[in-house]
Amino acid sequence: MKPFAYERAGSVRAAVTAAVDDPGAVFLGGGTNLVDHLRLGITHPGRLIDVSRLPLEDVEELPDGGLRIGATLRNSDLAAHPLVRTRFPVLSRALLAGASGQLRNAATTAGNLLQRTRCRYFQDPTTPCNKRDPGSGCSALTGYTRQHAVFGASEECIAVHPSDMAVAAAALDAVVVTTGPEGERRIPVTELLRLPGDEPQRDNTLLHGELITALEVPPLPAGARSGYRKVRDRASFAFALVSVAAVVETEGGTVRWARIALGGVAHKPWRATRAEDALAGAPATEESFRRAAEAELAAAEPLSGNAFKVPMARRTLTAVLSDLTAEEPQ
Amino acid sequence: MDAHVTLRVDGEERSLTVDTRTSLLDALRDRLGVTSPKKGCDHGQCGSCTVLLDGRRVVSCLALTVSHDGAEVTTAAGLPGPDGRLHPLQQAFWDHDAFQCGYCTPGQICSAAGMLEEADAGRPSHATADLDPAARTPLTDDEIRERMSGNICRCGAYVNIVAAIREVGDVSEVTER
Q1: Closest CA–CA distance from residue A89 to any residue of chain B (Å)
Q2: Which of A327, A314, A250, A309 is nearest to A281 (CA)?
Q3: Which residues 6+ apart lie within 8 Å of A200 measured at CB?
Q4: Banded pLDDT at B137 (limits 50, 70, 90)
Q5: Residue B64 Cα, gap to closest chain A Cα (Å)
Q6: Strands B72-74 and B50-53: what pairing?
Q7: Do B149 and A100 touch (CB under 8 A)?
Q8: Full set of structural domains in chain B with CATH
Q9: Measured between CB atoms, which of B19, B123, B148 is closest to A76?
Q10: Contact at 8 Å (CB) between B132 and A89?
Q11: Among A10-14, B81-85, B109-113, whose mean pLDDT is lowest?
Q12: Which helix (H) or strand (E) holds A113?
């Protein structure tokens, strides 16, 4: 591990100013991903700016019924929060499906969104990787592709985003609030995380020194239901092969609207807009759900080692929608 | 680059100067001689380095010491009472033969201690059917296994580990009433 300077930020403004002035600076939150990367030699920052003690740990109820979630709140605290459990179960479920009890006690809201891919080649500095070392090539393209993307990949990178929480956040139309060199701005999670294109080294659209301070979740109508299902190789403590976050509102046996995001299939949470379009106004039946899932998965571009993800995602999506609409909301 | 930090480790105040790269695990083991937390994978995947950091279970291999200046750290060696009596989890691991080689055991016990507090506080897990904060979730074997999934035992003593934790979990439920 290369030496680095360390400082604890006293305020959001101080953290941003310090980072903007130093191209080698990175923010440290819970450290569960960054410390591992320092040890693996994936990243070599000259300075760590510790933001983990900034007072951004609240879950605040917004006047419209949405939530404003602090960036440094621990994943376990967010998953256990009464308002999240009752109003946005998809978010609790996604968090609880991720990592282990120990990691959820350390990892933060913002850090969860900004965690990096677990692509084996990215994590192994002895192999070429365009994300870790732009221009060096993609080892996964000619290697093991079982874990890799079936949507939105590029010639440069076929890695997938590892977060469960981000998939729920995408389905909830959540927005991050940031403070950066140009002041405060709001970025939908679906635009914060990006597809690899020809710049796979960029996981997200943040500027250097821009700090996430909160995640805002807009309210759901009282009749909406939400859920998350994750399919993985082990029963616990494993990344998703495929996951589905869905929010759906039905009325009299008809789907009013649905918002769906898939995890484990793309470089960012994959909003299943084709399925959403197919569902709007459709009867809330398994047949509609299967058709909607088929409409989405028809656009998949599987690789040699991950074609299984296509039927897996289709069935998981169908099952999640069936579960969520099995009985009318109380 | 060096930084000065103070930690309270198993009830004792310890001050030291560390390289900023030093993990909490390495500070405990190599600098302070507290060898109860074990280095397994050093990547947060095995749980053998689990300690209670300010009362919550974490993997100490992924914690930077400098980031936790002033923290209270409890290792498995700090769990016995002042009279030297084993913590109920330690006694239960002994009684149920919940280990073979013992390398993962201090991490298992610290993790179980943190986990039982989380469960007592009504925190849900992936195995919890009802997220309703008012619902009381019994600590079933499925709950124990899910909540302890961050601790790996390569000897495969899981059956007895679950039995040991179940016994202590049951007792704490009884004493509550």
Answers
A1: 7
A2: A250
A3: A130, A131, A134, A138, A154, A156, A157, A159, A267
A4: confident
A5: 7
A6: antiparallel
A7: yes
A8: 2-78 (3.10.20.30), 88-176 (1.10.150.120)
A9: B123
A10: no
A11: B81-85
A12: helix A109-114
Q: Which residues contact A37 (CB under 8 A, 6 or more apart)?
A: A43, A116
Residues 12-31 in B contacting A (C-alpha not used; CB under 8 Å): 19-21, 23
Note the pLDDT of residue B175.
45
Helices (H), chain B: 24-26, 88-95, 105-120, 141-147, 158-176
- Nearest chain B residue (CA) to A93: B126
**Alpha-carbon distance B172 to B46, whole Å?**
27
Task: Report yes or no: A176 and A186 within 8 Å, Cβ to Cβ.
Answer: yes
CB-based contact A55:A68 (threshold 8 Å): no
Give the DSSP per-residue string, A233-287.
SSSSS---SEEEEEEEEEETTEEEEEEEEEESSSSS-EE-HHHHHHHTT-BSSHH
- Read off the pLDDT band of B171 (50, 70, 90): low
Strand A5-8 and strand A47-50: the pairing is: parallel
B64 and A35 within 8 Å at the Cβ level: the answer is: yes
ipTM value for the complex = 0.96
Burial group, residue A18, by CB count within 10 angstroms (0-12, 13-18, 19+): middle
CB-nearest partner of A102 from B23, B58, B131: B58
The partner residue sitting opposite B133, judged by closest CB among A48, A85, A100, is A85
The half-sphere exposure of A26 on its side-chain side, counting CA atoms within 13 A, is 16
Q: Which residue has the tokens 């919940």?
A: B98
pLDDT at site B172: 55
List the domains of chain A with CATH numbers: 225-324 (3.30.390.50)
Measured in angstroms, the CA of A298 and the nearest CA of chain B are apart by: 31
pLDDT tens string, chain A, 330 residues long: the values are: 999 999 999 999 999 999 999 999 999 999 999 999 999 999 999 999 999 999 999 999 999 999 999 999 999 999 999 999 999 999 999 999 999 999 999 999 999 999 999 999 999 999 999 999 999 999 999 999 999 999 999 999 999 999 999 999 999 999 999 999 999 999 999 999 999 999 999 999 999 999 999 999 999 999 999 999 999 999 999 999 999 999 999 999 999 999 999 999 999 999 999 999 999 999 999 999 999 999 999 999 999 999 999 999 999 999 999 999 996 544
Residues B13-27 pLDDT 10s: 999 999 999 999 999
Substitution target from A26, A102, A116, A118 for chain B, most B beta carbons within 10 A: A102
**CB–CB contacts below 8 A, A to B:** 117
- What are the residues facing B59 on neighbouring strands? B50
**Using only C-alpha atoms, what is the Rg of chain A?**
20
